[in-house]
Amino acid sequence: MSLPSWRDAGIGSMARAALWLVQEVGEDNIFTKAELREAFPDVAQIDRRMRDLRDHDWKISTSREDPTLRQQEQRFVAQGAEVWIPGKSKAPKHKASLTATQRAKVLDEDGYLCRTCGIAAGESYEEGIEQAVLNVARRKVIQPNGDTAYQLVTECKRCGAGSSGRQADLGRVLEQVAALSPMEQRVLAGWIAADRRSLSPLDKVWGQYRTLPEPSRKAVADALDGAND
Length: 229
What we know:
By secondary structure, the chain is of the alpha+beta class. The chain has 9 helices and 6 strands; from the N terminus they run αβααββαββαβαααα.
């Protein structure tokens, strides 16, 4: 079925903005506020209608989420709900605004750490150019019975910029936990209690080995072969 035109003034302005992104901008491409306003001179609050799309799982990054963008630029990352279809433009219940108290509670429960990459608030990324800023996101979680829940989680703005469609499968994780041996479950429980994984000497050597170039990796393999002769 063909899409309606974004130029059709008979549909809502949010739906027109969504169609403009799809038909004129295209996913992973950049547009400016000036271009948006030029396309919709008849809509006084088109910037706001564009922001409303985020409540329908449309991923649109600004310079706050994507440091490569200039202040006036935005990137259309991924399409969300087809809001031009009747009934699809109603905001999902899980998109209700967070209060300051709710946000502070989530940050505290998550130890002020990004639950995707593990970075702390104000900590510099590896390249040392940018410091982490933490936000609270809603993550889709598949429950053991197959139902879907949206749960709050701490995420840095860099990880949030690429989180469109990210979800967790609680049922699968619980199945994997149940399949562990009793000893492995005790080790996992210790990691969970400390909220960190303690690396064994073997883990550390493995991590260092993986950074070696191929000739050096071969030297390690040869040394192990010699030790086991």
